[in-house]
């Protein structure tokens, strides 16, 4: 029992901010938490999408994109969802954000293709 208490206390102390911690360090910690939270929202978005709960998936991907505006996968999935719902303008914005933030060439190419198709078809 004492060992569990010690492990819990050590975990709490490790997670607690250090006295005199600089504003930059606090900001970095906050950004890190936002990125981690965005990742969790992307994960939840995929779970909802697989379950056919598209509105909930959309909400999770939108939360992820708001928390981490460089998360290309959130914009990728939003592009697909918006297209499927016929939300052309929102889809184009999502694909543009995906293209701007994607690191992988395949994802950039898919975003370009979707943008091209949306720009050449009538609403």
Cα gyration radius (Å): 19 Å
Residue stretches low in confidence (pLDDT < 50, at least 5 long) are: 12-27
β-strand number: 0
Shape, please?
A: globular
Average pLDDT taken over every residue: 83
Determine the N-to-C terminus distance: 65 Å
Under CATH at level 1, the class stands as: Mainly Alpha
The CATH topology? Serine Threonine Protein Phosphatase 5, Tetratricopeptide repeat
List the helices and strands in order: HHHHHH
Topology summary:
Elements: H1 2-15, H2 23-50, H3 54-67, H4 72-84, H5 88-101, H6 105-120
Helix pairs in contact: 2-3, 3-4, 4-5, 5-6
Walk me through what this model shows.
This protein has six helices and no strands. The protein starts with a helix and ends with a helix. With 123 residues, it is an all-alpha fold. The protein has helices at residues 2-15, 23-50, 54-67, 72-84, 88-101, 105-120. Helix 3 (54-67) runs antiparallel to helix 4 (72-84), helix 4 (72-84) packs antiparallel against helix 5 (88-101) and helix 5 (88-101) packs antiparallel against helix 6. The model is unreliable at 12-27 (pLDDT under 50). It is globular and about 40 Å long.
């Amino acid at each position: 029992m004492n060992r569990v208490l010690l492990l819990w206390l050590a975990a709490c102390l490790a997670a607690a901010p250090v006295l005199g911690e600089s504003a930059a360090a606090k900001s970095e910690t906050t950004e890190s938490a936002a990125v981690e939270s965005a990742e969790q929202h992307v994960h939840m978005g995929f779970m909802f999408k697989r379950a056919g709960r598209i509105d909930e998936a959309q909400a999770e991907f939108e939360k992820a994109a708001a928390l981490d505006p460089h998360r290309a996968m959130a914009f990728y999935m939003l592009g697909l969802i918006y297209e499927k719902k016929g939300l052309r303008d929102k889809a184009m914005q999502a694909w543009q954000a995906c293209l701007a933030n994607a690191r992988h060439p395949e994802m950039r190419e898919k975003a370009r293709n979707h943008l091209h198709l949306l720009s050449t078809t009538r609403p």
